[in-house]
Give the backbone structure.
Amino acid sequence: MAKRKTRKFFTPAEASRMLPLVRRIVGDIVDLSAALADREARLTRLRKDGVAMGLITGPQLEEEEAAYGREVERLQEYVAELTQLGVELKDMRMGLIDFPGRMDGREVCLCWKHGEPELAWWHEVDAGYRGRQPLQVAAEVK
C-alpha cells in the first residue's frame, strides 16, 4: 500500500523564506510556458502545410516536435519541484501559486504571483485569486 503524503501547511514566515527558491522556479515556468505556446502555434502551422509548401522537411518537423516534447518534460519537472516543496501552481502563464496555510482553524491559501516583490496576499480556499485579501489583515495565519 502506498504511503499517503501529509500535506504541508505554511506560516507566512515559512512561505516568505521559501519565496526566493519558488520565485526562480516560477520564473522558469512562466518563461517556458510562453515559449511553449509560441512553439505549439508554430508547430500547428507547420503540421498543417509546412512540409507540403516546402517550409520544412519531414525530418526537420520531427526534430521540432521532439524539441517541443523535451520542453514539455522540462516544464513538468519544474511543476513537480513546486509540488515537492508543498506549493500549488494555479496558473503557469501568470505564475500564480498558493502556499497552503491555516487561519482560525481553517485551511486558507497564502497567495503569490510572479513579479510581486513579496508574499502579501491570502484567500479562502474556495475564493481563488479574485478573493485575495492583504496578508496584514491576516496576521494570525498559522
Notes: The chain has two helices and five strands. Strands lie at 88-91, 96-103, 106-113, 121-124, 133-134. Residues 137-142 have pLDDT under 50 and may be disordered.
